[in-house]
Amino acid sequence: MRKGEKAIGLIFAELRKAEKEFPTWPSDPVHGAAILAEEAGESVQAALDLYYGRGGVDKLIEETAQAGAMAIRLLIHLHES
């Protein structure tokens, strides 16, 4: 499997998980973008933790996949409105 396919697989796995756990999505783009920003911020925190030896790459991968999933959710709901 190519690296890109693996990355997309991780994002879609997180997307399915998020849609199951949180089936509704905000109706306005500001709150949707805020959810995306929160996940992106958690990716930055995980990157800092990795850089300074306080965390592993697995946490950064997880948080980045979650950010990707929220970007997709936002795009889906923007397209629907």
Written overview of the protein:
This protein has 81 residues and is mainly alpha-helical. The chain has one domain. 81% of the residues lie in helices and 0% in strands. It has helices at 3-21, 29-51, 57-80. The longest helix is centred in the last third of the chain and has 24 residues, at 57-80. The chain is globular, with a radius of gyration of 13 Å. The chain starts with a helix and ends with a helix.
- DSSP strand count: 0
How does the major sheet shape up? none
Low-confidence stretches: none
Strand content: under 5%
* Cα-atom radius of gyration: 13 Å
| Helicity, as a percent range | over 70%
How many domains?
1
Termini, distance in Å? 35 Å
The helix-and-strand class reads mainly alpha
Q: What is the general shape? A: globular
Q: Summarize the helix and strand pattern as letters.
A: HHH
The helix tally amounts to: 3
